[in-house]
Amino acid sequence: MFDNAPLLSVYRRTGKEKYLEAAEYAGRYIMSLQILDKHDPRYYGVIRELTPQSMEMDPRDATTAAWGLVWLYNFTGEEEYLRRAVLFGDFHLKQCMIEGWPQYSYYMEKQFDNFYARGSFQSGTGLFYYDLFMASQDSRYIEFGMRPIADNYLNFFIKDNGELIQEREIFTWNLDEESEQKNVTPNMHMFNDDFGAPMLQTASDLFKDEKYREGAYRYVQWLAEHQDEDGGFCNGTHPSAVPTALMYFHDLGQYYNDEKLLNAREKTLNKLLDMQFRNTGDIMLDGGIAGRYEGPENFPSGGDVCVNNRVSAYAINALIKLESDVEDIWLGRNNKKFIDPLKERMRTQTWYDLKW
């Protein structure tokens, strides 16, 4: 679900058409997962989880899929990609947002109960809404999507010391002992925040309020304090956190000129490069990034040598962001910022020629 946007980043950086073509293949598969049957409006626009027959829909995973369609539109200008992303965005606003936060998970068969808890990993959804707004010019995605997610993430999920709260109850926002991670190994999404930090940075740029960036800064400082000596996290049990942390240490370290974060960036970069398979002689491995095995538990030797697509996709963008100042890529800090077109018209004194 998340590989086509990094492929587009590589295409932007290299200009090689094979990466654009691969991204479009991925996008077409995503489109095959989308429900276009209006018979039941609760599911119109849904992007299924795994196959066109899947009965489950996880809003965060589906959001990442629709996010890829937004970026395909940005690169190709093909209106169908944007139309499909808008269909999902409208579905998500109406069916998934509950008092300013996305629903956890739900199913399209009545014998299964939906999950409602508020998971911190939904935070990156706000950045999807921002990119969808920039592509569609529909401000509902800011008013009812990005802003409440940014505010709720800041108010309910980031502690004063920067640590993330993993989960809250759906209608009360209450914590319980399990949510507070007492006496348990910290979960993956405390380290791979699913793009909450870049969402908050973009919120600061858009709303012109530094409180959002300061929240991201607190979190990333906490992240640096809990980094393993070799640059990983939790003794290597959370490899997907390595490329995301690399992006955050880079962006916020540069913004605040924070030596601690910039040093953490170097450790994280070395760790990520160590995780890459090179010169193995196996084309299924070379170039890929090692990650946690997420397949069946009874698979022979599962996890001994594993290229993880999530980690590899994140790594592509992280390395491009460090290597260059390329613009207009997914998660890029050098992307075009929102400017009201009215300001440009006033500056240039050029007005639309409204003939009719």
Notes on the structure:
The chain is mainly α. The chain is built from twelve helices and four strands. It has helices spanning 4-14, 17-32, 59-76, 79-96, 125-136, 140-156, 196-207, 210-225, 241-256, 259-274, 309-323, 341-348; strands at 56-57, 106-107, 118-119, 167-168. The protein has a two-stranded antiparallel sheet with strand order 1-2. Helix 4 (79-96) crosses helix 5 (125-136), helix 5 (125-136) runs antiparallel to helix 6 and helix 9 packs parallel to helix 11 (309-323).
Fill in the keyword field for this structure:
single chain; 356 residues; mainly alpha; two-stranded antiparallel ribbon; 4 strands; 2% strand
**Order of helix and strand elements from N to C terminus:** HHEHHEEHHEHHHHHH
Task: List unreliable stretches of 5+ residues.
Answer: 181-185
Average pLDDT: 92
Q: Specify the number of helices.
A: 12
N-C termini distance: 45 Å
Strand order of the largest sheet: 1-2
Structural shape: globular
Tally of strands = 4
Largest sheet: 2 strands, antiparallel
Query: Which percent range describes the beta-strand content?
Result: under 5%
The share of residues in helices is: 40-55%
Derived from helix and strand composition plus strand pairing, the structural class reads mainly alpha
- CA radius of gyration: 20 Å
